[in-house]
Structures are given as C-alpha cells and as structure tokens.
Amino acid sequence: MFHVLVIEDEPLIADYVAALAEMAGATSSTIVDTIKGALDAARSHAPDMILSDVNLMHGERGPDAVAAIRSTMGEIPVIFISATADDCVDCDYASAIFEKPVQPERVVAAIIAADRC
User: Fold this and answer.
1) pTM
2) End-to-end CA separation in angstroms for the chain
3) Sign (positive/negative) of CA torsion 116, 12, 47, 94?
4) What is the maximum alpha-carbon separation in the chain?
5) What SS3 string covers the chain?
6) 40 C-beta neighbours (distance < 10 Å), count
7) Mean pLDDT, range 95-112, rounded to an integer
8) CA triplet 58, 50, 20: central angle to 5 degrees?
C-alpha cells in the first residue's frame, strides 16, 4: 500500500502511468503537471514514490521537481518515464528510467521493485 505522485504534462499519459502504478499495488495517486503542482501535492500528501516525465511544459523539468521534493522529504524512490530519457542527465538516483512508449509490464515490475527498497 503506497501513494504515488505522477508528474506528467500529457493528461492521457498521466492517467496511464497512474493506472500502471495501481496495477503495481499503489493505493492512491496524485497527478500534477508543473513543478509548483508537484511541490504542493507532496506537501499535501507525502508520496511513497514519484513517477515523473523529464521535460514538462513551459521549459519546466521533472527532475527539478523531484530534486526539490527529495531535498525536504528524503530519498523517495523515483522512476522517470519520458520520450526524452536521454535528457535525464542528473538522474542517477532513479530506480529506473524508461523511454516512451513503454512496455507496461516492465514499468509495473520496476514500480514493484522500487516499492520493496
């Protein structure tokens, strides 16, 4: 039982990623599409895991949101899912980095593995 924060600016993809988290055992999720939204959501309901895109709208970056959350909340497991996975240059702390389109079974397995850590 765990809560997932999904940081994704494409609504259909965000819903899909949240559904994959639920398949992996997540009991709740919050979907946001900006850094401010991610910070507010994390303060409101501390995530047990973060699933994030790398490049968001308006030049924002998921890794920046993740870094800000982890700097105040500790080492929360993170999985990046992005069409531009190569842009995730400072993401060595991530449990996994997937390039879109993803193979759902691989993402579910990574979420399960990260939740066990």
Assistant:
1) 0.96
2) 14
3) positive
4) 34
5) CEEEEEECCCHHHHHHHHHHHHHCCEEEEEEECCHHHHHHHHHHCCCCEEEECCECHHHCEHHHHHHHHHHHHCCCCEEEEECCHHHCCCCCCCCEEEECCCCHHHHHHHHHHHHHC
6) 12
7) 96
8) 100
